[in-house]
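I would love for you to help me understand the pair of lines that follows before we discuss the fold together.
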Amino acid sequence: MADTVNAAGTGSGSGLVLDDADIGAYCEFFNKTSRKADLQLDRLIQTLNAAAETAFIEGKTAEALKEYITRLETLQGTILEFGFACSKLLTDFKERIKEIDELY
């Protein structure tokens, strides 16, 4: 069943049409994309840590790199949480629409 939602978020009229399959696809997209981005961030942090731990980079450059790594580490998990939150929001939306459909 397709539900039409206009830009204001109210029903009817022309606008964005989402069906259960679309919502499922968006949920899968957010989950996969956030996992992939989280893995890429982990790899980046590992690579930068390896570079910082070698004697190849020294002095202020090494200090700046370590500070950058510390800031990147604060993002770990955030991207993943964002993806899961988006997926949950879409799932909740789908459930809310089903509840409304049952009323009519």
User: Anything to note?
Assistant: Confidence is low (pLDDT under 50) at residues 1-8. The chain is about 70% helix and 10% strand. The first helix runs from residue 20 to 53. Helices lie at 20-53, 59-73, 78-103.
